[in-house]
From TrEMBL:
It comes from the Bacteria. It comes from Celeribacter indicus. PANTHER family: RETINOL DEHYDROGENASE, SHORT-CHAIN DEHYDROGENASE_REDUCTASE FAMILY PROTEIN. Keywords: Oxidoreductase. SUPFAM superfamilies: NAD(P)-binding Rossmann-fold domains. This is Glucose/ribitol short chain dehydrogenase/reductase family protein. Gene3D superfamilies: NAD(P)-binding Rossmann-like Domain. GO terms for molecular function: oxidoreductase activity.
């Protein structure tokens, strides 16, 4: 049976996607996240409702040590023959972190650490565990584009410089708003998806890298850091009407989850590498991302900076090379 790993697959868009992968495509799943009890519940529901195999993997994407441990867990399952190679790796976990700037245990600004750097490292450590014709998906956001109503509503993304982003608000560096920290992290996701695509093509590996915008989806845990009144308002028909009038890209939990599942598993998207898709008003459309996201120089710089920040040193590269040689 094909298998996908989904970060943040026990809630929101990730869980909706998990249910579609299980029901429509009959895929087995690895749910990776930092809330073991809720992951266990979601796994039990998926097994009960669809009869698939589900394994939970502890993963805090904001912590590089946790990412390394999770990757070792997955590699171990593969080496023991408990699971096959991954048919899809969905980098979906993430959020917006309101309030004063906070830092990960590695000392990096937490939005950047959670949404970008952890996934960058995870993909790197698991790249040889992905099956031929497998796919890597990044749940980005239309808010990364400052030329859209989505981007203007949340706050224009700033320069995607990983070294600066990791140190925002630290050692006298000026903080930026939570909205901008979020939109910039999503710009980094899109740049990273395209750069991964180029590197995969250059290396000859038949693996796809795809970016996805689920649209504005209410009913997830996304606004959990916001006041209760804002969370309540976001679910009202009135606010949805206002957003629509302002030209905001609107998704729904079911359709956006199904769209992410299709991008991961549907043969229709076998040639989607290096592209950006949006779930909008019940349609899954290939569309253009922001102008800046196509800047290959910035993407390469971001990649090299994240490589440095994640401490991807020689030892890990040697292990990876040995695994490749063995397979
Ligand atoms: N909802 C929207 O309107 C919208 C729009 C565009 C893009 N997105 C993106 O869609 C993705 C899913 O969000 P959602 O709306 O479904 O919200 P959600 O229900 O809050 O899901 C976010 C998931 O990410 C996990 N997560 C957060 N920080 C983590 C960490 N440090 N380590 C591991 N897992 C972590 C959460 O786990 P816990 O349960 O443990 O917190 C949760 O499972 C996110 O990347 C978000 O940025 C959402």
């Amino acid at each position: 049976m094909p298998i996908a790993l989904i970060t943040g697959g026990h809630t929101g868009i990730g869980y909706s996607c998990a249910r579609h992968l299980a029901s429509h495509f009959k895929w087995d799943l690895l749910l990776a996240g930092r809330s073991p009890a809720r992951m266990k519940e979601a796994a039990a529901e998926l097994r009960r409702d669809f009869g698939i195999e589900v394994t939970c993997v502890d993963l805090d994407t904001s912590s590089l040590a946790s990412v390394r441990k999770a990757a070792a867990h997955v590699t171990g399952l593969m080496d023991n023959g408990e699971i096959g190679r991954l048919d899809a790796l969905l980098c979906n976990a993430g959020g917006r972190f309101d309030g004063p700037v906070a830092f990960s245990e590695d000392g990096y600004e937490v939005t950047f650490a959670t949404n970008c750097l952890g996934h960058f490292l995870l993909v790197d450590l698991l790249k040889d565990c992905i099956a031929d014709n497998g796919r890597v998906l990044f749940t980005a956001s239309g808010t990364h584009d400052p030329d859209t109503a989505d981007g203007r509503m949340v706050g224009a993304a700033v320069e995607p410089d990983a070294t600066v982003l990791a140190g925002i608000g630290k050692d006298g560096n000026a903080p930026i708003s939570a909205g901008k920290r979020y939109t910039t992290s999503k710009l980094c996701n899109v740049l990273n998806a395209y750069e991964l695509h180029r590197r995969l093509r250059a290396s000859g590996r038949p693996v796809s890298s795809i970016a996805f915008d689920p649209g504005l989806v209410s009913g997830t845990g996304f606004l959990r850091g916001m006041p209760m009144a804002v969370q309540w308002l976001s679910r009202t028909a009135f606010l949805n009407w206002v957003f629509r009038r302002r030209g905001i890209t609107m998704g729904s939990l079911d359709f956006s989850g199904a769209s992410l599942a299709r991008l991961a598993a549907d043969p229709e998207f076998a040639d989607a590498s290096g592209k950006y898709f949006q779930s909008k008003d019940g349609k899954l459309l290939e569309t253009r991302s922001s102008t800046l996201s196509y800047d290959e120089t910035r993407a390469a710089r971001l990649w090299n900076q994240m490589d440095e920040l994640a401490g991807l040193h020689r030892k890990e590269n040697e292990i990876s090379t040995r695994r490749q040689a063995k397979s």
